[in-house]
Design a protein that fits this description.
single chain; alpha+beta; Phosphorylase Kinase, domain 1; Aminoglycoside 3'-phosphotransferase, Chain: A, domain 2; 2 domains; five-stranded antiparallel β-sheet; two-stranded antiparallel sheet; 9 helices; 11 strands
Length: 298
Amino acid sequence: MSQSAEHTTTDIALAVAARRDAGSVALAGAGTEFLFYEAAGGLVREGYRIPRSREFNTVNNNGVPAGLLQRQEMALARWAADNGVPSAAAIDLTIQDSIPVLILEVLDDDGSELDSAALGSVVASMHGLPVPDFPLVAQAGRPWDDRIVHRLEERYARLRIRHSLPVLPPTATLQAILDAGGHEVCLIHMDLRRQNVRVQKGQLLSIFDWSNALAAPPELEIARIQEYAVIKENGIDYPAFLKGYSKAGGSIDVGGPCWTIFGLDAAVMLAGVFDSVAPDPELREHFLSRVRTLAGDL
């Protein structure tokens, strides 16, 4: 797909809707890798998640076929629904013009402020579930600790080309810190923010966009949410989130060097995003400062 991706994906959405007698189609959302269309007028309101390209070459997904992420999204949406985690129904995965299109139930969002304590409660319940038997794209076939160290070093090296940052400890040291933690793993979403949920009157209706999901310690997710909460558009009240998480039985260890590495993983990713993918000087400097502080603490 080309620079006219939006036009091309619109054609694909129209063709899928015509095949399914679904009626009129409108663009409802756009992200870095996917666009989302809503179709109305058929027996069921449904949405079409359509990739911008057949293969992604982004910061998070380098050389990843879109079909892999679509199959994962469908599998994890169904896993969530089966286990009481708020989710829109994954209806079908179809191919249109060689492009994998995920068909999802449409749930309305009233634009209200997300109840962060309610989100914390849902996440605590999710973290208590068995990890689904499904290979996760972001895991890249590696144990969680090896994956985190590898991507941290890779992203950190890219940042150091453009910015003055302290030297990270050796790979073996980072690995030993994580190995010594004795962590239990669970399914973590790794991109929880207002943009990736549907809300009615503050209450969570569905979680979506599972592209970054990992089987890893819950602390890795919580550390990311703590960093996300700085960004106003993410709509997260971190203290309220923690209160809801704890009240629902969630428990995390926020002390020691493992927590520092988890926070650094999030801060490095966000510094990279606001440095190049979505340039924002103020947020870039905030997260570069966080990177320097956390790296220094190691």
